[in-house]
């Protein structure tokens, strides 16, 4: 079973997701220490990623007339909430009633106002073709570094989610199947 979908304008679904995540994290048999160990590596991955991307995203994204940063991509999904909880990051309050396709509420004149580690996973790895083409062309070494760090980040994120999913399925999926 997959994790539930949540949406920017579904406050009930968001509360239910946070409740389920907090319930799992509070269980005594939950392997929290292993997740925290992986989470520390994930923090390092994010710290390594930021300086690689900063120059390119600032140069292109700040002057973009049609930003690809929209609300639906900036809103965390269930997996993002799990990872944020593991890292001790408090999920930011999202303005209700916004269109999914409107420019992201966290996109400011200088770029995203959120630290990269606070953003949804989609916001961490997605960049428009123009940015990626320029990045590969002008900084091939940095681009290879970016690919390596993104691979490490993705693997560490998946390890956290795999540990969580086992507990989540045991706690919530069995209940749903009984109904």
List the SSEs and their pairings.
Elements (H helix, E strand, L loop, with lengths): L10 H15 L6 H30 L9 H4 L3 H10 L19 E2 L2 E2 L8 H5 L3 H10 L1 H39 L1
Antiparallel strand pairs: 1-2
Helix pairs in contact: 1-4, 1-7, 2-6, 2-7, 4-7, 6-7
| C-alpha end-to-end distance | 15 Å
Percent of residues in helices: 55-70%
What's the total count of β strands?
2
- Approximate strand percentage: under 5%
Please state the oligomeric state of the protein chains shown.
Answer: single chain
Please tell me about this protein's structure.
The chain is mainly alpha-helical. It has one domain. It is 63% helix and 2% strand. It has seven helices and two strands, in the order H-H-H-H-E-E-H-H-H. A two-stranded antiparallel sheet has the order 1-2. A hairpin with a 2-residue loop joins strand 1 and strand 2. It is globular, with a radius of gyration of 18 Å. The two termini are 15 Å apart.
The gist of it:
The chain has 179 residues and is an all-alpha fold.
């Amino acid at each position: 079973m997959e994790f539930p979908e949540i949406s920017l304008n579904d406050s009930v679904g968001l509360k239910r997701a946070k409740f389920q995540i907090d319930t799992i994290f509070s269980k005594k048999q939950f392997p929290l220490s292993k997740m925290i160990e992986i989470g520390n590596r994930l923090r390092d991955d994010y710290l390594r990623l930021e300086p690689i991307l900063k120059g390119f995203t600032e140069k292109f994204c700040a002057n973009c007339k049609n930003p690809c940063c929209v609300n639906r991509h900036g809103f965390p999904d269930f997996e993002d909430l799990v990872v944020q909880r593991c890292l001790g990051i408090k999920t930011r309050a999202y303005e209700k009633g916004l269109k999914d396709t409107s420019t992201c509420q966290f996109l400011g004149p200088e770029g995203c106002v959120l630290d990269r580690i606070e953003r949804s996973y989609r916001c961490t790895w997605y960049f428009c073709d123009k940015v990626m083409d320029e990045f590969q062309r002008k900084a091939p070494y940095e681009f290879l570094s970016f690919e390596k760090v993104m691979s490490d980040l993705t693997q560490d994120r998946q390890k956290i989610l795999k540990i969580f999913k086992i507990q989540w399925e045991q706690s919530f999926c069995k209940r749903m199947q009984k109904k």
